[in-house]
Amino acid sequence: xxxxxxxxxxxxxxxxxxxxxxxxxxxxxxxxxxxxxxxxxxxxxxxxxxxxxxxxxxxxxxxxxxxxxxxxxxxxxxxxxxxxxxxxxxxxxxxxxxxxxxxxxxxxxxxxxxxxxxxxxxxxxxxxxxxxxxxxxxxxxxxxxxxxxxxxxxxxxxxxxxxxxxxxxxxxxxxxxxxxxxxxxxxxxxxxxxxxxxxxxxxxxxxxxxxxxxxxxxxxxxxxxxxxxxxxxxxxxxxxxxxxxxxxxxxxxxxxxxxxxxxxxxxxxxxxxxxxxxxxxxxxxxxxxxxxxxxxxxxxxxxxxxxxxxxxxxxxxxxxxxxxxxxxxxxxxxxxxxxxxxxxxxxxxxxxxxxxxxxxxxxxxxxxxxxxxxxxxxxxxxxxxxxxxxxxxxxxxxxxxxxxxxxxxxxxxxxxxxxxxx
Length: 422
Prior knowledge:
Blueprint: H1 2-24, H2 29-48, H3 51-54, H4 57-70, H5 77-82, H6 88-118, H7 127-149, H8 161-177, H9 181-210, H10 217-238, H11 251-274, H12 276-283, H13 290-315, H14 322-343, H15 353-371, H16 387-411
Helix pairs in contact: 1-2, 1-10, 1-14, 1-15, 2-4, 2-11, 2-14, 4-6, 4-11, 6-8, 6-9, 6-10, 6-16, 7-8, 9-10, 9-16, 11-12, 11-13, 12-13, 13-14, 14-15
């Protein structure tokens, strides 16, 4: 029974982050990833059934948003092209670097969530010190690897991956000094899950294109990184030991985090993807009706405005209940889905199959949330850091990626949009 509860809890997080990450593909960049990351963080609180985490839910969601969102600055379009090459060296490099990029998403996303869970009144995380160290680590690593040594993963694209790498290493260093074993576990397992999900997702994309499967295979790759990254993050949290902290977050901190989640992030997404000008660029090929595009932008603005009002009214004051978290999770995901429908041409009568699958995922998620109401943390927790085991898992994943590379090049010759790094 306990294993069943754990499985349901992990599946709740995996499906939530996978669906949101697939939707994120319509918006991209840091803001799209941040919205998706926040949904993963909310799912984690819902699935855990830890009542002492309920009041922390906004802070946990913000940590997930910032961690998973920061990786959105990484350019990976060129790397995906390497995975489409017709020779082993370039395909293995492409899948390997996608593993690295996915791991960087998960490292910061899982790590920051773990730090919020581990921060208590008795042993608070020194957030100012941590941010300063991560900033310095990111800058130093970037200038050392990219500017000094000249190591470039995706020339001529941005090499911002090095900034995230440096920030992640600084975060791990901070965790080690502070003896925060559980956040380290979450960071590493999220990294392994996200890395595998991105590399495997690119392989699935190539296979789908080769066999001409009539589906958005890019979206399959995005779903894969979300599903396996969410699985790694969830298992990391549910298999670790966490302190009990019944103290409520400071009012100013909770309200500031709420404003970022329900106002700032959606506003940036709207500004970068859903204003009239952006919709005209994206939907002009579908409809020549400027009226349809105009009302699409107005509709999204009204939906976002209503979301802001509802959540600021219902979540402005503590304490929170499990029902509050479920409503936040499902509502936040539904609004993201609606925006995805609109941006591909809902009001022009243009809908895509993968969007209907988002709705199916939300229905499945709702069912899982209703049946997954057992506490999954007792009897599953540990403070061990099995570095040898993690290293062996990493080696196994490298071998697996090499096997995928061999299979991929045996299936096709030169593909459109393929790239050669070497």
